[in-house]
Amino acid sequence: AICAIVKGHKAAIFDIYQISETEVVTVSKDGYICFWNIENRHPKYSYQINHKGLRCIESDQCGTVLYLGGSDHHVFVFSLNNKSVVKTIECAHENSVFSILQLDDEALITGGRDAHIKEWQLTNPIRLLQSLPAHWFTVNSIVDLQDKGLIASGSRDKTIRLWDRDTLQPI
Fold this sequence. Notes:
The chain is an all-beta fold and 171 residues long. Helices cover 0% and strands 54% of the residues.
């Protein structure tokens, strides 16, 4: 049974992330990031990040930053304290950014419609460490299998690939 229907975006919602006991954040094809109050089921506030859409959300380990993957090829670094984009990784992928994983305080992994996995060093400025052809089609999801020392990626090509967590080399 559906508990409640909550509306706020003007287009398809692609990802949702819980940032506290009472708040979730969503990203949508409309290019907005929307913060929701879980208890009263209403949007609290929203911000337009781009005009082409947002595909995915990942939080940093401190819970102060959200990484947003865009349909415009970019990754946006959104400060939860300032409620604004503080950095942009421009042209992170040749097409939409579908998945983001923060490995630790220093590394971010992204996957895109270009079928590549990319590793970014979270320094100032953020820099690309490596770009790997990962699948035949879009990299839809990346997950950290930390206890196994692996990262797994899932693709539109109907495959899962395993990667060494430290080197990002395929297993």
